[in-house]
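Note to self: the last two entries modelled the partners one at a time, which told us nothing about the interface. This time every component goes in together.
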Amino acid sequence: MTQRGTLGVAVIGAGRMGADHVRRIDEVISGARVSAVVDLDPERAKRLADGIDGCTAYTDPAAAMAAEDVDAVLIASPGPAHEAALLTAFEHDLPVLCEKPLTPDAASALRVMEAEQKRGHRLVQVGFMRRYDAEYRKLKALLDSGQLGRPLMLHNRHRNAASPSGFTTAMLINDSVVHEMDVTRWLLDQEITAVTVLRPTPSENAPEGLSDPQLVLFETDGGAIVDVEINVNCGFGYQVKAEAVCERGTARIGEEQSLVTDMAGRWGGTIAQDFVERFAGAYDRQVQAWVDATRRGEVTGPSVWDGYATAAVCEAGVRAQSEGGRVEVELIERPAFYR
Amino acid sequence: MTQRGTLGVAVIGAGRMGADHVRRIDEVISGARVSAVVDLDPERAKRLADGIDGCTAYTDPAAAMAAEDVDAVLIASPGPAHEAALLTAFEHDLPVLCEKPLTPDAASALRVMEAEQKRGHRLVQVGFMRRYDAEYRKLKALLDSGQLGRPLMLHNRHRNAASPSGFTTAMLINDSVVHEMDVTRWLLDQEITAVTVLRPTPSENAPEGLSDPQLVLFETDGGAIVDVEINVNCGFGYQVKAEAVCERGTARIGEEQSLVTDMAGRWGGTIAQDFVERFAGAYDRQVQAWVDATRRGEVTGPSVWDGYATAAVCEAGVRAQSEGGRVEVELIERPAFYR
Amino acid sequence: MTQRGTLGVAVIGAGRMGADHVRRIDEVISGARVSAVVDLDPERAKRLADGIDGCTAYTDPAAAMAAEDVDAVLIASPGPAHEAALLTAFEHDLPVLCEKPLTPDAASALRVMEAEQKRGHRLVQVGFMRRYDAEYRKLKALLDSGQLGRPLMLHNRHRNAASPSGFTTAMLINDSVVHEMDVTRWLLDQEITAVTVLRPTPSENAPEGLSDPQLVLFETDGGAIVDVEINVNCGFGYQVKAEAVCERGTARIGEEQSLVTDMAGRWGGTIAQDFVERFAGAYDRQVQAWVDATRRGEVTGPSVWDGYATAAVCEAGVRAQSEGGRVEVELIERPAFYR
Amino acid sequence: MTQRGTLGVAVIGAGRMGADHVRRIDEVISGARVSAVVDLDPERAKRLADGIDGCTAYTDPAAAMAAEDVDAVLIASPGPAHEAALLTAFEHDLPVLCEKPLTPDAASALRVMEAEQKRGHRLVQVGFMRRYDAEYRKLKALLDSGQLGRPLMLHNRHRNAASPSGFTTAMLINDSVVHEMDVTRWLLDQEITAVTVLRPTPSENAPEGLSDPQLVLFETDGGAIVDVEINVNCGFGYQVKAEAVCERGTARIGEEQSLVTDMAGRWGGTIAQDFVERFAGAYDRQVQAWVDATRRGEVTGPSVWDGYATAAVCEAGVRAQSEGGRVEVELIERPAFYR
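The predicted structure of the combined assembly is written out below.
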């Protein structure tokens, strides 16, 4: 791969997420092409690959990664398959964009971390795409500027119109609040040290057995307090809001006001109905940033450390949900490699 | 009347507006009482007076104004009856709050102006109640502070859900836009020198024969340009908005955001359905300010000059509507008495 | 007192709060007058009384309450003096508007409750004035309408530009969060059953020794979760915001948007700098509602039970602050008298 | 060119606009590459071309268009050079994205229109990029849906922090209001039939001799009335706002609320300082849409008819500015080719 050549990407996983990334690289992203699609289901891989000029279908990730025209790997397979795919990519020294979660638990994340460190240089960007959302980036830039002083609290709202079938109480933490865990760590540049979960009487909209909504609280090693309303059956739409309360002011994002109508006795606007509407731009920017960095020979964005730390906070969060009270987060010391 | 005694008020006119003022003085206003209610219809006057301790019903305004317990007059009868009531109040040297319009045309307003000047001191406050609205007052204070520099343009929106039956195209000017005429003169402290009216194809909501909405344009002697969307069958509610565009910034009022909901796929709030909801506070403050000033022996607020100037602009506006093009406003020179 | 006569009010306490109520009754309120001003400091009482026609100064509350022209009592003295003044008012069977707190602790509130019950009818309205704020009333009406379904969470922000000198960590609960306790109980029509307090590293704006800001959490007997950001040295102004998260939507208040400017590279508006600017209307409406009800021979508004229950939650809150963890609230069973 | 091959683009003009398009095609756009850069100044063309793999510098547009690897042309040279470049592209039957204005006046636009018709199929997309702005597209979709009924009025604000040196009063129309002309025609799907211009006393911020701001009024053949505040020295930033007033409601765009702060006594956000910040996304989407359509063998977007009609409205606008009063727009009958 020359520095300015087109990046050949192998997409691992041809499900909903993988197919969306294939479409994105083909139609939206500049400087990359899909060279390989990998799926255990050969039919599914072939259907996706057939739509793309010069793209080959595989069932074996290792075979795809060994191909001449593959310069980088995008992992969008189910979480339990990530560890093996990552280790294979490391063998080929291929840069990886790995959808979140890095791996399903902290122990496996630690193994990936050790393997990456053995390569001697970073290879992995983890798919915490909120870091590429325009509004979150403005908030981050403002916090980093120091204009508002030190952050004291961070209030978050995370609402979905309805949870998909099969969604469990633990998934509220592992699939949903995991985003606020990453956002908290990134915005504040602090680690989360304890988690508490308060559970109101569930909403009538929540499926039988799902304790929804919940109020999830983080404490950080920088002395900040973070609250997250997670509310995955709110009924009215998809909303992600954040407000950082700092020593000299507050800043908030997440108010959608792009089209306001006055009609039938009401003023206001529509609420996005899913994360695609709210975060499509963030996904695009995430992949473009990864392609651009990879073509420059760099690895940027959320690291394996971020994937590991978030997995550890998730484990504490799920325990806090089920046991009640405050649960401390246990992290290994951060390797110099990830500083 | 001692300075701190309770002000006895005669309310002339027991229709909707008069009855509302009677209720206001009885229930809301501090330092005043309704001593007399006057209406040509003796039954209507009596019904209203009976609800108030120590209040007498009259059919003759002159008789009411001669009564011992009447210290001041509030005129809320139909416009054509104003001139006679004002002249009678002048004979008794009674302070007056006169509902707008002062009189139906500029010629009669001039006669009232001459009569008031003969008394040697101001007696009349004209009921342009927007000057007592909290938002307009903030805007006025900001403009007067000079922070924004000189006003260059003023954009206005004036919308009603539906026009009352019998509402004519001329009433768009005389009953509705008259408020923006007063607001323009007051906010900018400038006289209106010309009026132009642009008429789109009428809305399907407008009753047969009513040319609604319209875009009404003023030029002022201070070189400002003012536009007014008058739209009295907008269907969705009552809205009054203004934006002053100045040399160093703009300022706007009229966004109602006191309760915001997220529900059924939409965020936003309700729109007021009539002027009472929007301007109830302004009516209260107007009458309280008049009572307070009268008890101090002062006359403040919009003057007979304001009533006259607005009548002259209305006459130009109605001509501009019917004849098209730009119509100049003709005003007498402002008497020193009204400076 | 005849039903429609002017209500003669004795104001107990001539400090800042008392003086403000004297001015309010004199200048704003309809149907009431200040007949008596009581203060331990005879000079202070006299100075205030001298400005009002027919108003007498007293140093002894009992003497004032025994006066012919006193029909009702407004208690605005320091909290520790409330119990004695209330019991004296009960002896004279006088209706009372008692500034919050009813009394400084739950035990004394219980004694007042018993004494009032012995009179056989309610005499006391407690001064939780947020219930008279226009925005909170809209929110309450919306929740009561059932349109949004059952409330699940209530998020609150309570910010002051700076705390007065001598403000202690306990006063964050007793003087500030006490308002959210009342608001929670009133909006949700539920009792608070437990309090948890999370304390971030204090802001650099907080005076030495003051743990500010804090995140205070309530659980209610209806299964709702409530969070309160209390932040009394936020530096930028006075803000009170609330968002009710319900089964079918959310509703929020506290966004001040009455005048928006575009200037010097920024759009937006000013933030109120103290509670007077934000809640002046609520104080006026509270006193007017009390005067109107009293003249009708009724007692409405927050009751002694509300004063007691709030005192009990405050006690739990202060313990949660100092001891950490979750503290349960202990209430006696609610007497039928207060249902 | 195969349907899915990468589109080779010749960019004509290596000034600010051309350089920005070269960067865009190189870094942002998917499916296209810059094969040629053309500029009269060989050094300028070379500097730009040197940064791009496989890109050749030219001084003669015809030579570039004759090159093997040029599939399409993007014209970003000064307006007076457009006609010749367009006619050359027509000779090579190359699809063109032509920056606005199509040509400097209606007469030359007519000549281009005739030449394109002779080719028998559309080749040109005109660079009215607001049609690709996300907010304008939402507004267009809402109007087209019919939910709001027929549009009656369109209010527009177009503000720049400061005008570039050499900006003339006529350029207010030709360079700035030209966008609202296109937006009006596109949003309403109506032609503009008359223009009126009202000029307040110029702002102290306007350079000597520039009559700024102005209120520009359009009438349309569908009976709508449109007003445009054009204000190119407003001092505080770049703003483009629009409100469509329809029979059943209104809709507005242009309120930037992506990051709101509370700080130093004020709430609000920053105002974009130039059109790049506001419309960068629109430029990207415009070029991507052109590349995508071209690769599919289609021509979409604003046509030569749109370029001609806007030029005719500009001519009327400049006359209305200088002569005062209402000036009618004269258009040829719309050829069937452009329906």
